[in-house]
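Entry 14. Structure prediction run on the chain below.
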Amino acid sequence: MKLTDVGTVIATRELKLSSGKPVTVLIGKPERFPDSPDYCCPYQILGLGFERVKRAGGVDAVQAMEFAHKMIGADLYTSKEYRAGELHWAAGRKGDLGFPLADSIADLGPKHLDDCDALSPLGVPASELEPGGNYFIVTHMPNGLPWPNVESLVYLGENVTGEDPGKLLFQDIGSYCELGPYPNNASGNIYLVATERDTLPPNLFELKGVIDQLNRYAARQARAAAKKNR
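Output returned:
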């Protein structure tokens, strides 16, 4: 089930870029999954370019909202705008945007703004994208899972339809292999991600970047295990 909007908005937060441009976080009303007793809580971040509606799942509405807050925190604190010191919340201090982070990625948050390793540049520059190349979106999970979610995508190119100048388009690798590249075969279940050159998601990586992210998770696990065994 892919969401196109957050539905009934129950909460918002207004952030701001240094340029004065607003960034809005929308949180939707938690609803039951269609085929499960569990709940999902949708959310959307407007103003950072990558505006896909996402959702967090939980055993009840409260847990779904809790996990949504952590996923929002991961999206905001890993954004290139935050990492450049350009994203702010009027009520926050020292880089605080008011959203929590999962323990596994706590070092990405405001308490570690001076950590050069944690704040090193993320993602693939648009200039290095190659049509037909395989790229990955790495999403940090909020519910204590030891590893992130990794989506595999194929970069199709810029303005592939001839009707969207400046738009960069990615297709999920499953439909790419089964049906071929969009729009040559637009039938079937195809998942597309569209963005622009200056608003690429900061969690878009080549294979080497994914391996680096997984190695960071492994290092955090090792540190946590060492502390536990002391």
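DSSP finds four helices and eleven strands in the chain.
Filed with the rest of this week's runs.
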